Amino acid sequence: MRDWTHATLDDVIDFAIRIEEESHAFYSEAARTRSESAPPEVVKLFKILALEERNHKEILLRKKVGWRLNDVPNPEVGGNVQRIVDLPVVPAGAALGDVLLAAADRERNTAALYRSLMALSDFGDLQEVFGELVAQETGHEKRLLSIHQSLYPVAKE
């Protein structure tokens, strides 16, 4: 396994692009496999999130061309990458609640990665892009948790 504590910013941004690709695939597959069994609003959310993740990748690819990225290893960024890498795989046939919670965890950890990159960025444009991605990933997490809570409410004592 790679030691992400010594990753360069180029490495981490390439990784972020891959995360967005994987998230797009995850949500596309979730929408496809859950189209018959999940409530329509959940399937619709999965489709929307798939499109938004594809858009995140496109933003990163477009912006990366103009960024001058220095080789600046940072343990905090590496730690945030490692948390994303270490997320458990959701097995085929997992309960919808487990899929929603795993997706929310992935969104939370992706936002943490972008927060770290934003803090390291001294380029205005780079900070703006990562700030927007943090807001969007945090919004995704909240939407997933909200759907989870509406489908699986916790009994209040």
Q: Over the alpha carbons, how many angstroms does the gyration radius reach?
A: 16 Å
Strand content: under 5%
**Regarding CATH, which class?**
Mainly Alpha
- CATH topology, by name, is Ferritin
Overall mean confidence score, pLDDT: 82
Helix-strand pattern: HHHHH
Poorly predicted parts: none
Biggest sheet statistics: none
Count up the domains: 1
Count of separate DSSP helical elements? 5
Give the CATH H-level superfamily.
Answer: Ferritin, core subunit, four-helix bundle
- Which geometry do the CA atoms define? elongated
What is the CATH-assigned architecture? Up-down Bundle
Q: What is the CA–CA distance across the termini? A: 45 Å
Description of the molecule:
Helix 3 (75-85) runs antiparallel to helix 4 and helix 4 (96-120) packs antiparallel against helix 5. This protein starts with 8 loop residues before the first helix and ends in a 6-residue tail after the last helix. The model has no long low-confidence stretch (mean pLDDT 82). Helix content is 73%, strand content 0%. It is mostly helical.
